[in-house]
């Protein structure tokens, strides 16, 4: 098979961060499919330490969450936000668990893209863990916020550029 025809590799190349959304909601079945994609990410010792919370536009916590980031306008515009946490009791290796959370988030971003939606990974919001967790009514002793995925029906085309692979290689193939 020609690698350029592979649908997974194609989705990886085509996915873009989307920061503007229409007002259309995202249905529960689609949100569940996105969460299941995250659920299937690899994790060290298969500990699966991630936990999810979905906040939709009609949830009063959405505005509280928006107040925890300089990207409040993106949160407010999204149909839903998927908050990704690590369960501190389920963690066994901080580095591996953070890597696993990253894989989980990427799986969800790819699922969002292939389902015809758009999303952006909001990372700045994790800089004030106490405020974000408090806004959501969650315990800082139990959970660590890894990211918030703001998602919805795209109201923009994404764009991105990448450095040539040769600039990223430490040695030639």
Question: What is the radius of gyration computed over CA atoms, rounded to a whole number of angstroms?
Answer: 17 Å
Order of helices and strands: HHEHHEHEHEH
- Kindly state the number of beta strands: 4
Strand content: 15-25%
Query: Largest sheet at a glance?
Result: 4 strands, antiparallel
Number of helices: 7
Q: What's the rounded overall pLDDT mean?
A: 96
As laid out across the biggest beta sheet, the strand order is: 1-2-4-3
Which stretches are poorly predicted, pLDDT < 50 over at least 5 residues? none
Could you characterize what this model shows?
This protein has 173 residues and is of the alpha+beta class. 38% of the residues lie in helices and 17% in strands. The chain has seven helices and four strands. The chain has helices at 7-14, 28-39, 61-66, 72-77, 94-114, 129-136, 165-168, and strands spanning 50-56, 80-87, 118-122, 143-152. Strands 1-2-4-3 form a four-stranded antiparallel sheet, sandwiched between helices. Helix 2 (28-39) packs antiparallel against helix 5. The longest helix has 21 residues, at 94-114. The chain is globular, with a radius of gyration of 17 Å. The model has no long low-confidence stretch (mean pLDDT 96).
């Amino acid at each position: 098979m020609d690698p350029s025809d592979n649908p997974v590799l194609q989705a990886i190349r085509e996915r873009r961060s989307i920061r503007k959304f229409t007002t259309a909601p995202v249905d529960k079945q689609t949100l569940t499919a996105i969460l299941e994609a995250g659920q299937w990410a690899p994790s060290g010792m298969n500990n699966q330490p991630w936990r999810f919370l979905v906040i939709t536009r009609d949830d009063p916590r959405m505005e509280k969450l928006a107040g925890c980031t300089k990207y409040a306008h993106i949160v407010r515009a999204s149909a839903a936000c998927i908050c990704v946490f690590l369960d501190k009791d389920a963690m066994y290796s901080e580095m591996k668990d953070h890597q696993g959370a990253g894989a989980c988030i990427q799986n969800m971003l790819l699922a969002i893209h292939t389902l015809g939606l758009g999303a952006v990974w909001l990372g700045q919001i994790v800089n004030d863990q106490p405020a974000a967790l408090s806004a959501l009514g969650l315990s800082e002793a139990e959970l660590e916020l890894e990211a918030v995925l703001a998602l919805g029906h795209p109201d923009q085309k994404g764009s991105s550029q990448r450095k040539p692979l040769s600039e990223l290689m430490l040695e030639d193939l």
